[in-house]
Structures are given as C-alpha cells and as structure tokens.
Amino acid sequence: MTSIPSNPAHQPAPAAIILAAGMGKRMNSDLPKVLHPVGQPPRPMVQAVVDACREAGCRRIVLVIGYKQELVRDAMRGQPVEYAVQAEQLGTGHAVRCAESLFGHEKSGPGHDLFVLAGDGPLIRSATLRQMLDRHRSSLAAATLATSRIADPAGYGRIVRDGSGRFTAIVEHKDCTPAQLAIGEINPSYYCFDARAMFDALARVTRNSQSGEYYITDVPGMLLAAGSRVEVIDAVPPEDVLSINTPDQLAEVDRIYRLRCADRAALTGGPR
Q: pTM for this one?
C-alpha cells in the first residue's frame, strides 16, 4: 500500500503530463490533432490544456509528443513546457511511461501530485483541476479520477462504484455488461496520481490482449487492489466532455470555447 503524506497542505506544487502524440486520423488534416486551432485569435487546442494546468498551480508541464513532433515544438515555442517523445503509438499507459525519466525527483518519495490529461480537450477548466486536487489531497489518495455524468455515454469507459459509492473499476464500453452499459457516469480521462504510486503501477501494466497497447486506465484498479485509496469525484460538466475526432466536432467545441472566452473577457474587462 502506498504511503501518502499526512500534511497535504504542505505538499509541493502539482505537475502535469499532457498526452499530445496522436495524429487524429479523422480530422482530414496532416496536422497533429492537438494543433487544430480553437478560439479567436486561433490557438492550438493543446494550449488551452496547458493554460488550465498553469492556472491550477502546476509547476511543471510535460507534453508527450510523437506524430510530427517538430510542429508541436514550433507551435509551443516560448511556452514553459517540457517534452517527452512517444516514438511508437502503444497506448496511453505507454505514453505516460515515455515521460517517466523526467520525473526522477517526483518518484523518489510519496506526496508528489501529477495530473495526467489529454491534449485534445480544450474545454477543460482549471476549476475542475483544483477541485480534483483538493479531493486528492484531503483524502490522501494514490489516485483521483474526475468523472462526468452524460446523457449518452456510448463509447466511454464507465465508472463502476460499490454499494457505498466507492470506486471499483473503469470498464471500457466494449467490455461492459448490460447493467454497466446503463451507467451514465463516464471516464473523461482526468487523472490525478501520486507520482511514485502511478509509475510503480505502470511498470506492471501489461498489453491489452486485443489492441496490444498499454492503458493508463488499468492503473487505478491496480492501486485499489494493492490497498491504496482511489477517489472519484463527479466534477466534469457534461459540455466539457465533448470529443474532437472530426472537423464538425472541432467546430462545435470551437464555438463553445469562443463563447467562454467572450464571457470571461466581459467579466474581466479584457481578453482571455
């Protein structure tokens, strides 16, 4: 069982790993998926994720890059981010492990909080990350998942809880029983881990028998089975879960993102 410090208020600032290596095959573009623009003026969608992490207090942000990585580096030039390279696309767990060498200090002992997030979710809110981090620290968890309840959960991993409302498992849509398919609480891939506990578990993750890939979704269940605490918090507004896999979906997310930026500018008296 992972030992987590009992004084979470005095823990160091969190860090973040943002997964940004994918191609985005259905986007009808040669651009890396995370570089498709949102907002006005247009910015790469991954920039919105970086901004949310920064606003949530992250001291270090590592982008895991792969497909046409030089374009991502060029687009993010001048940003205070670091890079890890996923040369071969072998799943989310493999992507996170590609960044492991950059977190030697965080792995040296418990109490180092690490977000793992997708780079193609520009509707992410810093308030959600802060809420997640507060629960993670106050509960002394090894892993905390922020979840969402949506009207149409088709395609998403379901969050299974026990009779007391505690986390039991993430079950991918294709593996769900009929009862699990009826669950409306889904996994939008917002994770906060104790860094040492996460990397220790990742070293034991095996390839998925069907895809041959390694999945970060295996880690919370492994930590739970080892006796560590895993928290779930229903904190992600349904709108924020909107996927970007096609140009039409990008257009819808861009519309929402622009409205938010306009609302924020109206409240603050200036641009986002």
A: 0.93
